[in-house]
Amino acid sequence: MSAMHETPLPGSAEAAEPIEPDQSLSELLGRMTTDVGNLVSTQIELAKVEIKEEVSQAGKGFGVVGGGGLAGYFSVLVISFAAAYALSNLFDSLGWGFLVVGLVYAAVAAVLVLKGKDQIKSATPVAEHTKETLKEDVAWAKQQRS
Questions:
Q1: Which of 18, 107, 122, 128 has its CA 20 to 30 A from that of 93?
Q2: Are 24 and 32 in contact (CB under 8 A)?
Q3: What does the alpha-carbon distance between residue 129 and residue 120 come to, in Å, rounded to a whole number?
Q4: How large is the average pLDDT for residues 90-119?
Q5: What's the pTM?
Q6: What's the CA gap between 50 and 53, in Å, rounded?
Q7: Which phi and psi angles does 21 have, rounded to 5°?
């Protein structure tokens, strides 16, 4: 046998020889069952390690996204203050500048809420096709009992 192959190649003279000729069939089956169990256990452990690594990587990604969201929030806050101060120069009143910026945000919020409500109303949580099929099934069952 060569150093590259632990098991004999099919068709070679060594392949015709049993690996452990003195073991009974029940011993070989028991060994095979143990080996398969060990293989399955090893694969499960490998899957656990891979999943743990993927979850850890995803968690880090969520942290980065959260940090980006927080930075975005602060940037909107600072830009809002800058806009309010810029508008205060136009109106000669700081209060009017903040009021205008607040009204812009209120208008955006109202549009988003109304758009969201329309999308919610247009969604039909009840599956109409399934509902009709169930009605047909009930009618068929009633017909079968009469």
A1: 107
A2: no
A3: 20
A4: 94
A5: 0.49
A6: 5
A7: -70, -20
